[in-house]
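Input (structure):
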C-alpha cells in the first residue's frame, strides 16, 4: 500500500473542498481499501465523509423514495419504506456481498465501486481501465465472467453492483453536490460505458460527491423483484441477473421496467424487452417472446458465449415470477 494522508470532513462543504483538491472520498471503504492494498489505487489523500448527514431514507411526493448516500446496504435493505415501496431494491441488496460487508458498505460507495475484473486487479497484466493505453488482457484471455453487452475494443469488464441494476430498471436519479452546486443525473447517464476511455467510469466532476439516490414514483400496484444467477449461492458476483418491475391493471401490462446485471459494462436497461411487454396480457408465451430480446446486440467472447442464452432464460424466469405475484 502506498503512503497517503487522511482527513475527516465535518460537513459537506469541507468534504467538497478537500475533494476539489484531489482527495478521494471514503465512508465504508470496503472497495477502495481493497484496491489500495492491491496497489491498483494509490490516492494521496483520503477524505472520510462518514459523519456527513446523508443517512436518511425518505419517501418523496406521490410514492418515490430517496436513499441517502451514507445509508448502509443493510440499513437500506431492512428499511420499512424500501421494503414496502420497492422490494426489488431490498432483494438486490440482500443478494449482495456478505452480511458483514453489507453492514459497512454504503449505497453511494456501492454505486461507485469499481469492476471485479481479475485483470484490472492484477497489476502485472494489461488493463486500459487501470492504465489507459496499455491494452485489455481480458479480450483474448480467460473471459468467462466478462461482459457481452456495452463492450468496446478497450474494455469488456462487467459492473459488479446488484442494487445498481435495480436502480437502472427503476430509472433512478443520482443526486450530486459539488463546487458548482447541486445537480442530478439519470442513473443511465451516471455510469459510463467504456468506449475508448474505460478509466472514466462515472459522470462525476472533481470534488462532487453523491448525496442520495432517488427513485421516482411509479404507478401502483407495482410488482417487482430481483433474480441473481451465480456460480455459488453466497458471496459471489452475478453471471447474470434480472431486475423486473411491472404495473398490471385490468389484466394488461401498463408499465414495464427491466434491467440486467452480470452481462454488461454497466447495469443494462432492456428497453426492447420492456417494449415487447407494454400493452400485452401476461402469459407464458409473452414472457418467452419478450425475454428473447434480452441479448439483442450482444458481442460474446470466447469463454462467455453461454451468457447469451443464460441471460434470456434469467429474464424469462424473472418475468414469470414477478408477473404471477399475487
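Output (sequence):
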Amino acid at each position: 500500500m502506498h503512503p497517503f494522508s487522511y482527513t475527516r470532513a465535518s460537513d459537506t462543504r469541507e468534504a467538497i473542498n478537500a475533494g476539489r483538491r484531489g482527495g478521494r472520498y471514503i465512508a465504508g471503504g470496503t472497495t477502495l481499501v481493497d484496491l489500495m492494498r492491491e496497489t491498483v489505487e494509490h490516492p494521496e489523500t483520503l477524505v472520510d465523509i462518514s459523519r456527513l448527514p446523508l443517512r436518511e431514507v425518505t419517501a418523496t411526493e406521490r410514492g418515490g423514495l430517496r436513499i441517502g448516500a451514507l445509508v448502509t446496504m443493510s440499513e437500506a435493505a431492512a428499511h420499512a419504506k424500501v421494503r414496502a415501496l420497492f422490494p426489488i431494491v431490498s432483494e438486490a441488496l440482500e443478494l449482495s456481498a456478505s452480511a458483514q460487508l453489507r453492514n459497512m458498505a454504503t449505497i453511494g460507495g456501492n454505486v461507485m465501486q469499481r469492476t471485479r475484473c481479475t485483470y484490472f486487479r492484477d497489476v502485472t497484466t494489461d488493463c486500459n481501465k487501470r492504465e489507459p493505453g496499455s491494452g485489455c488482457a481480458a479480450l483474448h484471455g480467460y473471459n468467462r465472467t466478462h461482459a457481452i453487452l456495452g463492450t468496446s475494443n478497450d474494455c469488456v469488464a462487467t459492473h459488479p453492483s446488484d442494487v445498481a441494476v435495480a436502480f437502472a430498471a427503476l430509472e433512478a436519479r443520482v443526486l450530486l453536490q459539488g463546487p458548482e452546486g447541486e445537480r442530478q443525473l439519470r442513473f443511465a447517464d451516471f455510469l459510463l460505458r467504456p468506449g475508448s476511455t474505460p478509466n472514466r467510469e462515472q459522470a462525476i466532476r472533481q470534488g462532487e460527491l453523491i448525496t442520495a439516490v432517488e427513485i421516482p414514483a411509479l404507478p401502483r400496484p407495482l410488482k417487482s423483484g430481483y433474480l441473481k444467477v451465480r456460480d455459488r449461492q453466497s458471496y459471489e458476483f452475478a453471471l447474470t441477473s434480472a431486475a423486473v418491475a411491472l404495473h398490471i391493471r385490468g389484466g394488461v401490462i401498463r408499465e414495464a421496467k427491466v434491467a440486467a446485471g452480470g452481462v454488461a459494462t454497466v447495469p443494462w436497461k432492456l428497453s426492447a424487452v420492456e417494449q415487447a411487454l407494454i400493452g400485452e396480457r401476461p402469459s407464458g408465451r409473452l414472457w418467452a417472446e419478450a425475454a428473447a430480446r434480452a441479448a439483442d446486440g450482444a458481442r460474446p467472447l470466447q469463454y462467455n458465449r453461454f451468457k447469451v442464452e443464460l441471460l434470456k432464460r434469467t429474464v424469462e424466469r424473472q418475468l414469470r415470477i414477478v408477473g404471477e405475484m399475487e
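Notes: Residues 306-323 form the longest helix (18 residues). The radius of gyration is 19 Å.
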